[in-house]
Amino acid sequence: MKKAQRQEDRMQRGAGILLSITSLPSPHGIGTIGREAYDFVDLLAEMKQSYWQVLPLGPTGYGDSPYQSFSAFAGNPYLIDLDELVRQGLLTEEEAGSADGETGSLKISEAEKGKGTTEDPQGGTGKLRVLLLPAI
């Protein structure tokens, strides 16, 4: 009986979406693992979705393809949310702006500073899974 129950739990159907993190909205050209990603996870949970399948997250190679990574273990630095680093006081707006190519391009209000995105994006439900699948 226990074995059948475990198999049933593993075989439970669910719905989800395939969306590259770089396709999330951002004022910097590509999406990041920042506020927009957390908001997207909240939206998926609200829509009762079980899965978010993302493309590979490694540094991109020729043609910025996520499937031609230089490393199987490193993360893509393009996915770092500079706005969040400014909010946490780890970067100044000028430092983050120079990384973006335009000094002072980040506009973060005083009300947003100090608001981290460390809360559980799943709201503690544990129902949403992010699928990190290897490229085939």
UniProtKB/TrEMBL annotation:
> What keywords does the record list, in alphabetical order?
Carbohydrate metabolism, Glycosyltransferase, Transferase
| Residue ranges of the region described as Disordered | 91-128
The keyword Glycosyltransferase belongs to this UniProt entry's keyword annotation: yes
Q: EC number(s) of the enzyme?
A: 2.4.1.25
The record's listing under Pfam families reads: Glyco_hydro_77
Give the top-level enzyme category: transferase
Q: Which InterPro entries match?
A: GH (IPR017853), Glyco_hydro_77 (IPR003385)
Record carries keyword Glycosyltransferase: yes
Give the reaction(s) catalysed. Transfers a segment of a (1->4)-alpha-D-glucan to a new position in an acceptor, which may be glucose or a (1->4)-alpha-D-glucan
Q: Name one GO molecular function term.
A: 4-alpha-glucanotransferase activity
The record's comment on protein family reads: Belongs to the disproportionating enzyme family.
Could you identify this protein by its name?
A: 4-alpha-glucanotransferase
The organism is Suilimivivens aceti
